[in-house]
Amino acid sequence: MADFDPSGVWEASLIAGTVIRFDIGPVQPNGSFSGSANIPKLGTGQGTGWALGRLFVFKIDFGRFPQYLYSGWLGEDRIIKGSVVEVTAPATVTAWGSLKQF
User: Fold this and answer.
1) What is the average pLDDT score of the chain?
2) Does residue 30 register a pLDDT over 80?
3) Is the pLDDT score of 8 beyond 90?
4) Taking the C-alpha atoms of 62, 7, 70 and 51 in order, what is their torsion angle to the nearest 10 degrees?
5) How far apart are CA 11 and CA 32, in angstroms?
6) Where are the domains of the chain?
7) Which DSSP string corresponds to the chain?
8) pTM beyond 0.85
9) Whole-angstrom Cα distance, residue 100 to residue 59?
10) How would CATH label the architecture of 8-98?
């Protein structure tokens, strides 16, 4: 069970300033969820993830584009902060953070 509820529509920002819009469905009792993400220039991708304790993990597939894995932790400030990895090029890592408190 998660210490927060990531379901709903919310935004996050990459360290470079790109804003991502997440639309996450209800979190199941085991912590799993499904949803989508919209990234400018990539469009909308579908994905699945988990919210357990303070951990957030969301893998998004953009079809003809690479897959991205967002992982992060809910901080004391109630903001999720972490890193995003391009699954097909794991050396490509950048920081991200939610633009709302949970």
Assistant:
1) 94
2) yes
3) yes
4) -130
5) 19
6) 8-98
7) -BSS---EEEEEEETTS-EEEEEE-PPPTTSEEEEEEEETTTEEEEEEEEEEBTEEEEEEE-TTSPEEEEEEEE-TTS-EEEEEEETTEEEEEEEEEESS--
8) yes
9) 20
10) Beta Barrel (2.40)
Phi-psi category of residue 17: left, alpha or beta, with phi > 0 → left and psi -120 to 50 → alpha: left
Rg (C-alpha) for the chain, rounded Å, is: 12
> CB of 15 within 8 A of CB of 94?
yes
Residue 23, phi then psi, degrees to nearest 5: -130, 100
Cβ of 77: how many Cβ atoms within 10 Å?
9
- Model confidence at 66, pLDDT cuts 50, 70, 90, reads confident
